[in-house]
Specification:
Keywords: ATP-binding, Nucleotide-binding. This protein is an alpha/beta fold. The protein has two domains: 2-196, P-loop containing nucleotide triphosphate hydrolases (Rossmann fold, 3-Layer(aba) Sandwich), CATH 3.40.50.300; 205-317, Helicase, Ruva Protein, domain 3 (Orthogonal Bundle), CATH 1.10.8. It has helices at residues 2-9, 16-27, 42-52, 69-72, 106-118, 153-156, 170-180, 193-203, 210-224, 244-260, 268-279, 287-292, 296-306, 315-322; strands at 32-35, 57-61, 73-78, 83-88, 95-99, 120-123, 126-129, 135-140, 161-164, 238-240, 284-285. The strands form four sheets. It has a five-stranded parallel sheet with strand order 2-5-8-1-9. Strand 3 (73-78) and strand 4 form a beta hairpin. Helix 1 packs across helix 3 and helix 9 (210-224) packs across helix 10 (244-260). The two termini are 33 Å apart. The mean pLDDT is 80.
Amino acid sequence: MEQILYEVKKVVVGQDHFLERVLVAILAQGHLLVEGVPGLAKTLTVKTLARTIRGSFKRIQFTPDLVPADLIGTRIYNQKTGDFSTSFGPVFTHLLLADEINRAPAKVQSALLEVMQEYQVTIAGETHRVPQPFLVMATQNPIETEGTYPLPEAQVDRFMMKVLVGYPSEEEEFVIANRVTGPAASVAAVTSTEHLAEMQRECRNGFVDPSLIQYAVRLVAATRDPERYGVRDTADYLTCGASPRATINLVECARALAFLRGRNYVVPEDMVDIAPDVLRHRLSLSYQALTDGISADALIARLMKHLPAPDRVLDTHVRVESGA
């Protein structure tokens, strides 16, 4: 994974948080929702990543006139043979970039649900599996809302994480301009999709202490009933909390983040670092929160302040490893 990151950083300048979350999503076999203005290397990141793992990459530019067949494929009649053949859509790839996903109507967005959850599509009654590993990275533009369709809650919940991508610093932008206007950097393929699948299986063997799983359960439950956990000042700002899928994704992402950091066990810092990315898109804010200018990240910070991560979580792991 370090070699993959090294190759991607040959092309992409900065965006360390974003790149780390992309690798976490791949290891945890989840999907990523990215919010950021145009020109922040979102497409370039996924395209470069596909080259490093010898995988296929496809991009779909979502528009209001898109139909589900443009996404998953359709049946085509051959006049010469009199038979129907299946034409597969762009979802049959390893890394799929759904650019400006909120510009497509709900019917097209829902067509993405099955392939994101089940890793398969159904065309004319026949089920077809997509290649593995499979990652959907969808982008949203936060500043332009004309002609957009809000993502359904069911689809937003399918995304393992939502990452906010910001502008680079002046130093990073200087390097970007210097690198883009100079000779093109060559990116080497350092691994394969088969090896990546092995790393995904190895990642799932990482140890997560039961106290950390309990912490994830309590943190997600606090988004549903803040008063029960002593966070009364957030109750008026939330209309709906996170689903149990958030708890599962929190544990999976913390395990993948620990794997990236060179450990086969999770520490509290892993879960604390990844929690905002897992939870921010799963909270439904009330009208009062919007009028008071309270963001989902601010509410998550309040909950995490009242519910600190547990200490001494590795005692059980140490005893198991030592045979005590």
